Amino acid sequence: MAILRPAGEFDTGYARDMATIRRPWQWWLLLAFILALYTLPFYAGQSLVSLVNRIGITIIAVQGLNLLTGYTGQISLGQAAFMTTGGYISALLVNNLGWSFFAALPVAAMGAGIVGLLFGLPSLRVKGFYLVMATLAAQFIIPWFTRNAFPDVLNGAQGLNVQVPILLGLEFNRPQRYIYITLTVLILTTIVAHNVSRSRLGRAFVAIRDNDLAAEVLGVNLFKHKLQAFFLAAVYAGVAGALAAHNIRHLNSETFNLTDSVFYLGMLVVGGLGSSLGPIFGAIIVELLIEGATLFGPFFIRTFPSTAAGAVQALRPLFFGTALMLFLIFEPRGLAHRWYLLKAAWRLRPFSH
Amino acid sequence: MRKYLLSLLTIMVSISLVLGACAPKPTPTPVPTKVPTATPVPTKAPTATPVPTKGPPDLTGQTITIYHFGDLSGPYAAITAPLIHGAEDAVAAINEAGGLYGATLAIKFADTAGSIDEAVAAYDRFTGEDDNPLVMITYGSGEVEALAQRFAEGKVVNLTAGLSARGFYVDSGYTFGLGPIYPDQIGFVMKFLKENWDTYKPAGAGEEIKLAYLSWPTAFGQGALTDESRAYLADLGIEIVAEEIYDLSPTADTTTAILNGQAAGANVIWTNTLAFGTSVILNDLNALGLRDQFVVCTDNWGMDLATYAFLANPAYGVGLIATFPYLWWTDTDNPGVQYAQQLFEANERTAGEHNVGYLLLIAGVDLAVEAIQHAIDTGGYENLTGEAVHDALIDMSPFEALNGVLRVDFSGGSRSPHTAQIRMIQGGPDAFAVIQNWAEMPDLRPAE
């Protein structure tokens, strides 16, 4: 899509040409939004803070998937498995070795990234459905490993109780506190993801996605860049997994499952593949739909007690599936694209058509 | 760029620390019940001794809320829906009868879809809504394990049907069971089998019990096998010859698991699952023609009316043995069971809900209400907190909820019942015959 700018606004240097935020009022708006998020515990209920916390963690996981699937075109159903990896690494470092969570987090991210690399290896030889199958393997192998390997350390199917992060004596043991970790990490991952997409690396990813043969002819090293995409996606998953594990305070092989991986992919479709805003929009919309189904279920079962038990079971996939289907039909480029169209229409007003 | 990032990171960490330290506290610390007389009771007509323990208080106009959350839209939904209805019908009946000292009982439910993440969200929601939550009822082992620490920190009593030993005794303290923990259950049944092996052993089986543990790969499914239960079985001379898993699905294929058990020489199968998990084993055993080679045993959830719904032939259920830590619908001479039956009929519940979930939650609500009442009697309504209910549950023990439908004893540091029956299916639906009456179970709780 062409970048439309108001008349008279020119780029006077390279930095300005690359700027994401171009006007002072946009900076103020962004800062006000961030401030509103950071002060959320002071004016919102615990339930909302907890929900925002969960959405933040989900966005991080989907951002990683966006780098792999949205930009590089490599479909993965293993994101939740890499979250498991990150969660376990962080939990073990904190629980068993006494590390600070804040030191364990980057190590967990790197560990998950390395595991992601292993499962990314088939990407050079296979693509499409075959690659999906290869990544799906991660979703079976990693939970199996956590259940069966090193039972004295990983504690089998029962999993681990995970300690809460502590910084300078402050325990992040409530949503009102934990949200500061989530938000801080989320801002960093968003900056990194956005800048990766604008870098040489991001352009190579897009080239691979659009036509890998042409990309290779142009000098893009397919193997290296595909593995880099897998690594980055798994790093993001590792960060999200570690954050989620310490937030939940418990981790086992069921915590992040195949359904989560499918939902993350769906969030990306709903939000918009290959866009920095896509994961944010997608995660928010789908998490709210899930929350809606969760809140609607008990009401439904009370209203229709004789028939609702089975129907309620279908609410969540029904909500998710319907949203996904509608987006695929009416807005396959996702909410992010709709947002860009809206912005373009605003800039062209009153000649939006 | 790096400089900007570092600066940004430093600023955000600093802001996070300051805001985190200033974050509002959701639950004001309640007054502990151990010093009830220190707080004068605000009665309309002042009396000489403001101790709230004399005479029943009039709590008309007050509301006491019980929270419960479980899987209504995930893999365990089949068992959870009747649990919810049981709890809600029990609460409605108590309110119709005048409530708890005149106070209205309210009950709030949240769906977790079997997800631990959602369970944490439900806990956050409820504790955010209520400054003084007393009791939360939960249903899943995973949820119990994940939330045990939170319940203890928040001093909220958790009455649970998720009977994971870790959830009760590791980083816990406020989690109380509506049934015995799974290690106790497997130990109880295996001890019984060991003592009565000649009566129950399959034709051609040797003198030794060889156990195949075939179950779901979940916290619940693997919940019976702990260090303590393994050691106990070893002491009994029972060898675990196979540990196999199968899918958490009513259509799971257990053929490989069964054949591996057979190849390992097993003559007893234990499955730690719900009714449909037990049924798939029984179906496949019959399909393979191996039913007569194994004694099939299960936890308390595995033997239910719902078992028949998943059996290819009702006769396949015959011979199934299970721990039974409560009475059953057929025990019609018990007033508690009669009461449950009346509620069931009055609320026109469907036949499919005439199962363990509905019955147990009526008993569970009775236990919760009795504990709340005991806490009010002891410390007064003004001092009614989760901690007071926690103390009441211990103080009341041993206690027979719903006229003996459920027997609990939370004394001596135990937070799970230690008595149960053993029953065996010996005919058509509901023919859950008692083969071992109420007896003390082995205490296989992990070290706290």
Number of strands of chain A: 4
Strand content of chain B: 15-25%
Q: Identify the strand order in the major beta sheet of chain A.
A: 1-4
Q: Which structural class best describes the helix and strand composition of chain B?
A: alpha/beta
Helix content of chain B: 25-40%
Mean pLDDT of chain A: 90
Q: What is the tally of beta strands of chain B? A: 14
CATH level 1 name of chain A: Mainly Alpha
Number of domains of chain A: 1
Class from helix and strand fractions of chain A: mainly alpha
Count of helix runs of chain A: 16
- Beta-strand level of the residues of chain A, as a percent range? under 5%
Shape estimate of chain A = globular
> What is the alpha-carbon Rg of chain B in Å?
24 Å
List keywords for this structure.
heterodimer, A: 353 residues, ABC transporter involved in vitamin B12 uptake, BtuC, 73% helix, B: 448 residues, Rossmann fold, 2 domains, globular
Quick recap of the structure?
The complex is a heterodimer of chains A (353) and B (448). Chain A is mainly alpha-helical and 353 residues long.
How are the secondary structure elements laid out?
The complex is a heterodimer of chains A (353) and B (448).
Chain A: H1 14-18, H2 24-38, H3 40-43, H4 46-71, H5 79-97, H6 101-120, H7 129-148, H8 151-154, E1 160-161, E2 166-167, E3 170-171, H9 175-198, H10 200-210, H11 212-217, H12 222-248, E4 250-251, H13 258-271, H14 278-303, H15 308-330, H16 334-347
Antiparallel strand pairs in A: 1-4, 2-3
Chain B: H1 2-22, E1 63-70, H2 77-96, E2 104-111, H3 116-129, E3 135-138, H4 141-154, E4 157-160, H5 165-169, E5 175-177, H6 182-195, H7 197-200, E6 210-215, H8 227-236, E7 239-245, H9 255-263, E8 268-271, H10 275-288, E9 295-298, H11 305-310, E10 321-324, H12 335-346, H13 356-379, H14 386-396, E11 399-401, E12 406-408, E13 419-425, E14 432-440
Parallel strand pairs in B: 1-2, 1-3, 3-4, 4-5, 6-7, 6-8, 8-9, 9-10
Antiparallel strand pairs in B: 10-13, 11-12, 13-14
